[in-house]
């Protein structure tokens, strides 16, 4: 099945609310487990950037687990960031965790360099995936730890519908529709590896679940 791109931004307030209220604990926990597995020597310090952070569930958990980090979450849709800002205020994390509404690419001249780059479920939204890898090259500090996780495109529309029913059958229709469209817009492992070669990034990429792939490694010297 060929990739079918979807809209890059989720700017509808109902989408932002639905995503904030949905249970993504499984994939989010898997993301954090993968980071610990791939980078067991991480000292829990430095600047952290989450690209396409949405309501910032992963970034908030990461910042809580690593209190000596300073974190920035970027998302192109303000509606997705609003629930995260509310949680940050309640958790009193706002002084060292910032959320910013911006679209890729980002430049180090504006944001500086980061010691950790995170991204979960952003890649499939991008019509041009190179803007993500361009941003990685521009803002990664030497030796930056990177973990990108995203959906894996199923072989057919019918397979995509089965994934939706298996993992989101009880969710609101707006989420099921978004999930289905996201599966159709996702990349395969070989496609992502080709993107990395084009960007000159020596990173690993493999399938990590029946519906996810991951990219990880150290960026730069």
Quote the CATH topology: Rossmann fold
Globular, elongated, flat, extended or rod-shaped: what is the shape? globular
What number of domains?
A: 1
Give the strand order of the largest sheet, numbering strands 1, 2, ... along the chain: 3-2-1-4-5-7-6
Percent range of helical residues = 40-55%
Strand content: 15-25%
Order of helices and strands: HHEHEHEHEHEHHHEE
What would CATH call the architecture?
3-Layer(aba) Sandwich
How much is the average pLDDT? 92
The CATH class name reads: Alpha Beta
Largest sheet: 7 strands, mixed
N→C terminal distance: 37 Å
- Counting helices, strands and paired strands, the structural category is alpha/beta
Poorly predicted runs of 5 or more residues: none
Number of strands: 7
CATH superfamily membership, which one?
Vaccinia Virus protein VP39
| Rg (C-alpha, Å) | 16 Å
Number of helices: 9
């Amino acid at each position: 099945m060929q990739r079918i791109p979807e809209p890059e931004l989720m700017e509808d307030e109902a989408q932002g609310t639905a995503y904030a209220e949905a249970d993504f604990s499984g994939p989010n926990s898997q993301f954090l487990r993968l980071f610990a597995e791939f980078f067991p020597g991480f000292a829990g310090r430095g600047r952290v950037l989450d690209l396409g952070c949405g309501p910032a569930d992963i970034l908030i958990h990461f910042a809580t687990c690593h209190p000596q980090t300073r974190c920035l979450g970027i998302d192109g849709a303000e509606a997705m960031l609003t629930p995260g800002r509310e949680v940050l205020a309640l958790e009193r994390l706002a002084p060292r965790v910032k959320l910013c509404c911006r679209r890729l690419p980002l430049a180090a001249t504006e944001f500086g360099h980061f010691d950790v780059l995170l991204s979960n479920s952003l890649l499939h939204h991008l019509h041009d995936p190179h803007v993500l890898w361009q941003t990685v090259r521009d803002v990664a500090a030497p030796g930056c730890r990177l973990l990108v996780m995203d959906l894996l495109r199923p072989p057919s529309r019918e397979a995509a519908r089965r994934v939706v029913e298996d993992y989101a059958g009880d969710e609101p229709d707006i989420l099921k529709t978004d999930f289905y469209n996201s599966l159709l817009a996702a990349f395969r492992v070989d496609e992502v590896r080709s993107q990395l070669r084009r960007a000159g990034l020596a990173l690993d990429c493999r399938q990590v679940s029946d519906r996810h792939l991951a990219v990880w490694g150290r960026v730069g010297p």
